[in-house]
Design a protein that fits this description.
The chain is α+β, with helices and mostly antiparallel strands. The protein is 42% helix and 20% strand. The longest helix is centred in the C-terminal third of the chain and has 17 residues. It is elongated, with a radius of gyration of 19 Å. The protein starts with 6 loop residues before the first helix and ends in a 9-residue tail after the last helix. GO terms for molecular function: DNA binding; DNA-binding transcription factor activity. Keywords: DNA-binding, Transcription, Transcription regulation.
């Protein structure tokens, strides 16, 4: 369809691209001004995009940011583009190196979706099988990716306490608690989950990022708590694998507040 035949579509795409270039949500008036749109048009398109989950409205701040739907679309792309195929040999080598189960997950809204698992001989089966979804803030895989997102996008994913799910009474229950955990992930350089998903098992994970520095997946190693005296060697192995996948995808890391 010629671009001139669908101005509303072109304008909606321009709004999404404009929001993606800002680290924080943007006032509607600024969107209209920067894109040369009538204010009424900007407000209408922002409202329609919010209805579809592609934009999040923060009414207290009178600002708009990217919504959960954008992350769902973004996480679908690497899966369709062969992320699992690219990752499988890297994960297989990681299993050989660590002798533990390894899996690859992507963000899907506020959840993580497990798309690939490589099992080590003699290790127990995990609940994080391919196709399983779990709340991202409860898993090492999810925390690793959330820690690589800008603060505004984390806030869009978890706008209030109703967005938080706990498991056996564990896990962050507020945005403040989640931000504290994500700060710890960035300081350590890896995410850690200890018994939250499955009692007796722990996981370490590191994020895989694209050319824009946004997380497209995470590599996690799950191990029995009694086996490992120190998590650091496993964390280092997970980070090396994530860095290798980042390199293969042409990505690079950037710092987020």
């Amino acid at each position: 369809m010629p671009r001139s035949a669908s101005p509303a579509v072109s304008q909606a795409v321009a709004i999404l691209r404009h929001l993606s270039r800002h680290p924080e949500p943007v006032p509607a008036a600024a969107v209209a001004r920067d894109l040369g749109l009538p204010r009424s048009t900007a407000y209408k398109l922002l409202s329609l995009l919010a209805d579809e989950g592609l934009v999040t409205h923060l009414p207290e701040e009178r600002r708009y940011g990217l919504g959960v739907g954008v992350f769902e679309l973004g996480s679908a792309y690497p899966r369709q583009a062969g992320l699992a195929r690219v990752s499988r040999p890297v994960l297989a080598r990681l299993v050989d190196e660590t002798t533990h189960n390894v899996h690859l997950a992507v963000l899907h809204g506020r959840d993580v979706l497990y798309v690939l698992e490589e099992r080590a001989p003699g290790r127990p089966m995990l609940v994080t099988d391919v196709g399983v979804r779990l709340p991202s803030q409860l898993t090492a895989s999810g925390l690793a990716m959330l820690a690589a997102l800008p603060a505004a996008q984390v806030r869009a994913l978890f706008p209030d306490r109703d967005a938080f799910v706990t498991r056996r009474g564990t896990g962050p229950r507020s945005l403040t608690a989640l931000r504290s955990e994500l700060a710890a992930v960035r300081t350590r350089g890896f995410a850690l989950e200890d018994g939250t998903v499955t009692e007796g098992l722990a996981s370490v994970a590191a994020a895989v990022v694209d050319h824009g520095g946004h997380p497209v997946a995470s590599v996690a190693i799950t191990y029995p708590r009694h086996v490992e005296a120190s998590v650091q060697p496993l964390a280092d192995a997970a980070r090396r694998a994530a860095q290798e996948l980042t390199r293969r995808l042409g990505g690079h890391r950037k710092e987020h507040p």
